[in-house]
């Protein structure tokens, strides 16, 4: 798995912090890591982007960013409004493939969800994953509504013949409600893929040293961690009746 594409079921689901956790766990396992942000929106030239945040939390990763647009919009829309060239799926795939020749693991982080448009032709992160023949990790929210968006994302990947590696819950609260507890069991079913981790709410606010130490405990062995899905499911299961 030299390249792993990381997408979310929507915005603000914890995709960047999850990318950082995957990077930190891989680094702890002795692997070299590169992080590619396909298109950064809503950030000015002198501000830190998502790839910078991954590096701050995870440590010694190589970072790359293909394009940056100031408006907090879908990449295609933000590119059009800025008058700049859009990012195209083939450019994403080529950049990731080049990084993969020099690193053990390349993490390609998208913008928003799987089908957010990069360009006027409708190119998406899903297209880049197809070109790369790379598996996709889906970051999902914990609460009500996540089953629908997760299943739609999984179905789209399957329709394209792209491997869905698994699902990670991007933010798990200290006091989960009933829907969240039930979703721990239902998410792998609707995705037809394993649950590969759950990040605690506020993980991105930890000091980087603490984040790096704790990150493997949030992710399953498939992602170089020690997190156990069955144990987490048992602890989260609501009382029956």
SSE order and pairing:
Layout: E1 3-8, H1 15-28, E2 33-37, E3 40-41, H2 50-58, E4 62-65, E5 68-69, H3 75-82, H4 89-100, E6 105-113, H5 125-132, E7 136-140, H6 146-160, E8 164-172, H7 178-191, E9 195-200, H8 208-214, H9 229-236
Parallel strand pairs: 1-6, 1-7, 2-4, 2-6, 3-5, 7-8, 8-9
Helix pairs in contact: 1-2, 4-5, 6-7
List keywords for this structure.
241 residues; alpha/beta; 7-stranded parallel sheet; two-stranded parallel sheet; 20% strand
- The strand order across the widest sheet is 4-2-6-1-7-8-9
Task: Classify the secondary structure makeup into a structural class.
Answer: alpha/beta
How much of the sequence is in beta strands? 15-25%
Distance between the termini: 43 Å
Mean pLDDT: 95
Give the helices and strands as they follow along the chain: EHEEHEEHHEHEHEHEHH
| Rg over C-alpha atoms, rounded to the nearest angstrom | 17 Å
Account of the 3D structure:
- The protein is of the alpha/beta class.
- Helix content is 39%, strand content 20%.
- The protein is built from nine helices and nine strands.
- The protein has helices spanning 15-28, 50-58, 75-82, 89-100, 125-132, 146-160, 178-191, 208-214, 229-236; strands at 3-8, 33-37, 40-41, 62-65, 68-69, 105-113, 136-140, 164-172, 195-200.
- The strands form two sheets. A seven-stranded parallel sheet has the order 4-2-6-1-7-8-9, sandwiched between helices.
- Helix 6 (146-160) packs parallel to helix 7.
- The chain is globular, with a radius of gyration of 17 Å.
- It starts with a strand and ends in a 5-residue tail after the last helix.
- The model has no long low-confidence stretch (mean pLDDT 95).
